[in-house]
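Incident log, support desk, overnight shift.

02:14 A customer reports that sequence design results differ from what the structure should imply. Their input is reproduced verbatim below. On-call engineer (initials T.W.) acknowledged and began investigating.
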């Protein structure tokens, strides 16, 4: 069952033959980590299991502080894990009795701030990771591939933001790594350049025969370009799946809320139905049974809620965003902050009071049982 339209999968996913055997370039097994100043009993990462297959681009998605960059640093070798292990191309590079320095792991790294050497020109930056006497024809090919041909003599301050990001990617790929780690590489770019570069990334990695692991806090970006997306929250991995699977079958209420930008409504079971403050829903499968102390929640998409202006209404319009073909309203109802997608003709002012109800036939998902629902 799908609540939202399926996103466009990455070009790499569309081109990969289904019968091609997938080799695991990176394996993270039972990874736990915390820093020296972390409070006792708290973990930055808690029991992470993750694999990056040959030719994949996998996104690490989650809010700030959830452990995305820490996981990248552990794979790169900038941090040592407290527990668990990291394998690259089947070789243990971090574990209980094994540690391999970052420069010996064969991993390329692209940083958020590019980390280019200001005293080296574009050609020298690209070739920096190559060993003495190593063939530099790959560096020339990468600069051409990334649209930097003719700019070899320019220094980083003489390049645009997009060109500097391309140069950082060229430098990471020049030594021929099997894995490239990217830490929010597009966050400092303007919208047009960011959209163009992110759409090109899967094809560039594919041409170079490299797999990629990219950190982002933008669900739209992760769903648009990644073959799979790993969703983290407070150091725990909630789900790792293809964009289509995340959209159609979110594993937890958090995945539905953060990735799909859906609404979570507290709910109660009433016979065969589920009751919320906005209306009643019917189960499309067997009636749910309350198991354990975890409260029931219903995930509803932003277009599954109707709004009617009412000066005596309990809800009020907190803000709105113009999306081109529709409005996205933020509505406050008691302690709930809800998101509603409404047509352009529904143009309302901030602060107006209103009543909300579920749109008849709107699809929902009940958590924690993940049962499909439909509004009555």
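02:41 Re-run completed on a clean worker. Output:
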């Amino acid at each position: 069952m799908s609540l939202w339209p399926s996103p466009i999968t990455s070009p790499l996913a569309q081109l990969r033959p289904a019968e091609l055997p997938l080799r695991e370039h990176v394996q993270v097994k039972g990874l736990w980590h915390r820093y020296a100043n972390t409070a006792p009993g708290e973990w930055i990462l808690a029991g992470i299991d993750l694999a990056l297959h040959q030719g994949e681009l996998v996104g690490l998605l989650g809010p700030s502080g959830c452990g995305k960059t820490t996981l990248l640093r552990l794979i790169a070798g900038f941090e040592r894990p407290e527990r668990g292990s990291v394998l690259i191309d089947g070789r243990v590079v971090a574990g209980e009795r094994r540690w391999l320095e970052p420069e010996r792991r064969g991993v390329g790294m692209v940083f958020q701030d590019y980390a280019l050497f200001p005293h080296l020109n574009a050609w020298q930056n690209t070739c920096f990771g190559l060993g003495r006497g190593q063939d530099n024809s790959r560096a020339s090919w990468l600069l051409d591939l990334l649209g930097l041909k003719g700019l070899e003599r320019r220094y980083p301050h003489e390049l645009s933001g997009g060109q500097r990001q391309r140069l950082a990617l060229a430098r990471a790929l020049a030594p021929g790594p099997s894995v490239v780690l990217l830490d929010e590489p597009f966050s400092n770019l303007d919208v047009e350049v960011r959209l163009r570069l992110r759409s090109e990334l899967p094809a560039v990695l594919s041409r170079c025969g490299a797999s990629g692991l990219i950190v982002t806090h933008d669900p739209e970006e992760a769903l648009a370009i990644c073959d799979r997306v790993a969703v983290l929250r407070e150091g725990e991995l909630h789900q790792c799946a293809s964009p289509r699977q995340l959209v159609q079958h979110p594993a937890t209420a958090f995945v539905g809320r953060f990735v799909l930008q859906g609404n979570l409504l507290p709910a109660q079971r009433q016979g065969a139905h589920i009751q919320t403050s906005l209306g009643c829903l019917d189960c499309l499968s067997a009636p749910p049974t309350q198991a354990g102390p975890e409260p029931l929640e219903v995930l509803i998409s932003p277009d599954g809620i109707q709004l009617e202006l009412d000066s005596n209404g309990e809800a009020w319009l907190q803000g709105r965003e113009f999306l081109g073909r529709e409005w996205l309203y933020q509505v406050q109802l008691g302690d709930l902050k809800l998101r509603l997608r409404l047509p352009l003709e529904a143009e309302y002012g901030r602060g107006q009071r209103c009543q909300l109800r579920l749109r008849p036939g709107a699809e929902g998902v009940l958590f924690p049982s993940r049962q499909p629902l439909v509004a009555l």
